[in-house]
Design goal:
Blueprint: E1 3-6, H1 14-25, E2 30-33, E3 38-42, H2 47-57, E4 66-69, H3 72-78, H4 83-92, E5 97-102, E6 118-123, H5 127-136, E7 140-144, H6 157-164, E8 170-173, E9 183-186, E10 193-196
Parallel strand pairs: 1-8, 2-8, 4-6, 5-9
Antiparallel strand pairs: 2-3, 3-7, 4-7, 5-6, 9-10
Helix pairs in contact: 1-5
Length: 207
Amino acid sequence: MATVWRVHSIDPQQRSIQQAGKILASGGLIVCPTECSYVLLHRLNEKKAHEKVLKIRDLPKEHQFTLLCSDLSEVAQYAQVGSAEHRILRKHCPGPFTFVLPATRLLPKRLIGPRRKTIGVRISDHPVCKALLAELAEPVITTTARVGAEETALSDPEEIERVLGRQVDGILLVDEEVPAETTIVDLVSEPPQVIRAGKGPLDQLGI
């Protein structure tokens, strides 16, 4: 059964963040809020946690996952960022956007797109998410918290605990619902393409 922490959305309790960070560091799978949706997240090299995600989401192994980073310097370690891409990321990160970029060799092969060798990258501005990443001091792999073929992401805290409580190791919950998803922009394509319209406003992209 998952450990559940109910934390303040602006100033999360440090003890809860530390406990969640320990579970994450030991290979666990955590549910965490972002400014867009709750996400499932785990460390990069945790195969068992990754297999849990594939099972929960009923995803194929070639699914494109997202690397959640604390800042642009972390992004640049795991994704190839040119000057044009850097300007776009600097303008829109942190925020409700995921950007698809070529992956570097630091990422495990199972996490990158099999055809184009790409990875989605994101920097969240949510205080709980930022605190957890700061506690772990490394980026994590994420995907939207939803179950199987369900199109709608889990957003209600009570439902998240009920549905995922026996499938993950820890759940960080806040009082408000966070139902939207990120806007996904493919920066590998020429010109860049919007793969999914989400919370990030398209008119601000300027691409």
